[in-house]
Every structure is written in structure tokens, then in C-alpha cells.
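Standup notes
- HV: blocked on the assembly model, inputs below
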Amino acid sequence: MNVEFINPFLSSLINVLSTMAQTQLKPGKPRIKTDEIACGDVSGLIGMVGPQTRGSFSITFDEELALTIMERMLGERPDSIDEEVTDMVGEITNMVTGGAKNLLGEKGFDFDMATPIVVSGKGHTITHKSQGKKIIMPFSSDAGNANIEVSFDKL
Amino acid sequence: MNVEFINPFLSSLINVLSTMAQTQLKPGKPRIKTDEIACGDVSGLIGMVGPQTRGSFSITFDEELALTIMERMLGERPDSIDEEVTDMVGEITNMVTGGAKNLLGEKGFDFDMATPIVVSGKGHTITHKSQGKKIIMPFSSDAGNANIEVSFDKL
């Protein structure tokens, strides 16, 4: 898997969060994940299936960032990661993957998306179990950190 | 979504764990999940995409059960949920979904599987964000509890 495959997810995420929540994410350096573990408090995950390959995408937020995004979108800040927050994380997961799907489709790389799943739990970790390389991309912002991770089989 | 859709996952899981780890799981009562939250320590998740629908499947284990399965499969008990355990949970997720895919395919219900993702973290919770009903099925055993959850859009 080429690091270039992360870029459509990266630009889609930056676009979604600046549009929906007036939050500017600053991308860090993408890296091939080996035994590094990304840790967060609420994550959205989605499976992807296409004719050339299959894979998975995840986005993980610090609690602080997830709550701030909710506040900026809805004008009210939840006390904790409740159902409204997990709905929002599921929706962001769908939107970011959908945006990346459009960008990758223009390059002839097609996939269909499964439905998103949201995980919440203080300091959980996520491991993508595809056979391909795992690329992780950290983001920082004024309200906390996030990271995305993408993995496809056989690229 | 009909509760009948859970049965292929149920029988596939029972079959996989009795074959691979000599562990008999006793199914509880399946239920439509509303705001009930299933909680566990290590989970395998996978997306499914088919011509009729798309959805997601998850299986969540207590740490005790996950470590016991490893012990029965490999003869050695890990101290904690390490990479070998998450690999095993990813593999079980693939095998259970693959078994259910075969059973459902015989009934004319086809889907392709994405690649599995494994989550670890004490007491995390999982929410499937499809538009369909979420069906949860608890299991008990001599070594701890597990539960599976399945959700498809538009059934």
C-alpha cells in the first residue's frame, strides 16, 4: 500500500471538520504502523470492499476534541461521550470515507463502504488486521488530537 | 432485520470455538438492542457489503475468556491482551463471519467481507451505526462471557 492512499482520507477529514465544526486539523507526518499503538477515547471504524481490494479505516479522537466538535456543531457541550457524540463520530466516519471514496474513484480505485461502528472507552487501542501495510496519520488541533488509520489488503 | 439473521453467526461462532479451542459457548436470548450497551475488553469488528445490503458484525470478549481461548489453542496463557490475542480475535472474527456468509449465501443472501479490526481496552463499548435494527446475542461459558452483535441496513 502506497502512502498516497492516505491523502484522500486526510483531505476529506480536514474538509469535513473545517466545514462542519469550524475546527482546523493540522496533519502530522504519516507513518507506516508497525507496533506503534494509537490510543483514543472514541473511534469510528468502517470496512471497505472493492473489486481490487478490501480494507478498513478508522478515526480516533481524544474525548476533549470529540466534545469540542459537538459543541461547535450544536452549540452545546455534552458532559461525556454519550449517544449523540457516538452518532456524530459515526457520521464523520461515513463522510470522511465517502469523500475519500470519491477522490479515489476518480483515480480508478473503487470500493463500497460497509456501515460504521463506533467504539467508546477511555484509552482503547485499535489494530487493523488486513494483510497490507497500516498507515497512520496523526492530527493536532486547538482542542485536542485525532488520528486516522487506513489499511488495504494487497496494494 | 429479522432475528433469523443472527442464527448463522451464532452457529458459526459455537462451531469455531468448540473446534479451535474446545470451548463450549452457551447462547443466551437474542434481543433487539436499543440503548443496551454491551461491554467487553477485546472485540473483533468487520464490515459487510452486498448487493442487497451492507452492515457490520462484532464479537466482544471478556479478557478472561479471550486469555482462556488462547491458552486452549496454544497451550500457553498470555498475561494480558497482547498482539497474539488481538491476532486471534481478528482471526475468529474472520472465521465466524466467513461461516455465516456461507450459510446466508445458501439462502440467497450474499455479501463480501471487509478486513477485520480489533479493539482492546478495558470495558469499551461498541455501537453499530447502521440504519437497521441491531441484534445482540450474549454467550456464557466456563471461562467467561462473550457477545455478538449484527446489524444490516434495510432488512
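- HV (later): unblocked. Chain B has three helices and eight strands. The beta strands of chain B are 26-27, 31-33, 39-49, 54-61, 112-113, 117-128, 134-141, 144-152.
- Next: hand off to the docking folks.
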